[in-house]
Amino acid sequence: GEQRVEVNILLLGARNVGKTLTVRFLTRRFIGEYGDISIYSRVDRIDGQEICINIWDSQSISDKQLQWADGMILVYSICDRGSFAAILQQLQLIRRSRKSVPVVIVGNKRDLQDHRRVSGEEGRFLALTERCGFFEVSAAETYHGVLLVFHRLVGLVRESRALRKSAAGVRGIVRTVSAVFGRKQAE
Ligand SMILES: Nc1nc2c(ncn2[C@@H]2O[C@H](COP(=O)(O)OP(=O)(O)OP(=O)(O)O)[C@@H](O)[C@H]2O)c(=O)[nH]1
């Protein structure tokens, strides 16, 4: 049979940026609340593969979350500069321990143009310099934009897994070759 793939996503963002709205929309299944921990999950078929997306929604990052996550979504509100500053800090924290973990940056509340405080260019520029994905969405308006964000991140996670696997393969070949040559030289 077909194996189901699990992807753990940490959804980070300051207060009031729209994390809860995002997760409630996306997930029909609430896994549980353990103290201040809430994990949700959703099963999707992406590129013909069944994927179980687990989402941990949080305002701050712990070591445990850093280890748990396969990918991160950093959400800010385009109406709140403080929330944009917050994801910058979180990005630095993430990069310190998980150098190459896939990250997607999301500017939410795109429908509130009259209250915009962070330009699209600023968000896009940050994402470009930090090698992250970038989207502006309105969680309140459309479910589709938010779904795209998650699917993009799942794609990045799967690419990075495939890369790690092939890197391990190459390391194995290098070990084998050097073992053979090493023996030859010793003979
Ligand atoms: N106009 C608009 N309002 C939004 C959008 N997303 C969320 N909101 C509203 O913003 C408020 C905060 O949304 P939440 O989803 O509770 O935010 P949160 O990030 O979970 O906040 P905390 O629980 O404090 O961490 C709510 O009143 C939402 O209805 C959006 O895209 N557009």
Summarize the structure.
This protein is an alpha/beta fold.
Q: Topology of this protein?
A:
Layout: E1 5-13, H1 19-26, E2 29-34, E3 37-46, E4 49-58, H2 63-68, E5 71-77, H3 81-97, E6 103-108, H4 120-129, E7 133-136, H5 143-186
The structure holds guanosine-5'-triphosphate.
Guanosine-5'-triphosphate binds next to α1.
List its traits:
single chain, about 190 residues, alpha/beta, Rossmann fold, seven-stranded mixed β-sheet, 7 strands, about 45% helix, binds guanosine-5'-triphosphate
Question: Can you offer a commentary on this structure?
Answer:
The protein has a single domain, classed as P-loop containing nucleotide triphosphate hydrolases (Rossmann fold), CATH 3.40.50. It is an alpha/beta fold and 187 residues long. The radius of gyration is 19 Å and the shape is globular. Bound molecules: guanosine-5'-triphosphate. Guanosine-5'-triphosphate binds next to helix 1.
**Small molecules in complex:** guanosine-5'-triphosphate
Outline the biggest β-sheet.
7 strands, mixed
| Overall structural domain count | 1
Order of helices and strands: EHEEEHEHEHEH
CATH superfamily: P-loop containing nucleotide triphosphate hydrolases
- Taking all Cα atoms into account, the compactness measure Rg is 19 Å
In the predicted model, the low-confidence regions spanning at least 5 consecutive residues are none
Helix content: 40-55%
